[in-house]
Amino acid sequence: MTGPMRIGDAAAAAGTTPRALRFYEQRGLLPPPARTASGQRAYGPETVTRVRVIRTLLALGLTVEDLASRAHRLDLLAEDPPRSCASTGDFGPDTFAPVIEQRLAVLDAEIARLTRLRESLARHAGTVVLP
């Protein structure tokens, strides 16, 4: 589709649900859509592309909060070909680099915690007695 789409059509084209589109709007990941004369949301193809970018970033492990902090940069990733989210080739505070570094640190801490838990369980596997 190239013209305005209703929320159901836009959601289907992006591989998600109308509820997700409304959620992304509420969280600031999508700008408020245009409205038809009857008040229905009207989305363009750029919204579908942006939602696909959002879904990809969420699938990579970033959170909605991570993306909301850089929502103004999401359109750079939605371009064809995608542009860097670095403002001038650097990795300053306005880019995704700090967000990604922070998320990697959180994942590393969780992996370390789970590794310790696994090792502890493995050590006690033969001695665990259930009542």
From TrEMBL:
Key words of the record: DNA-binding
Coiled-coil features, chain-numbered ranges: none
Domain HTH merR-type: 1-74
Signal peptide: none
InterPro entries: DNA-bd_dom_put_sf, MerR-type_HTH_dom, MerR_fam
The keyword Protein biosynthesis appears for this protein: no
PROSITE patterns linked: HTH_MERR_2
Protein name: HTH merR-type domain-containing protein
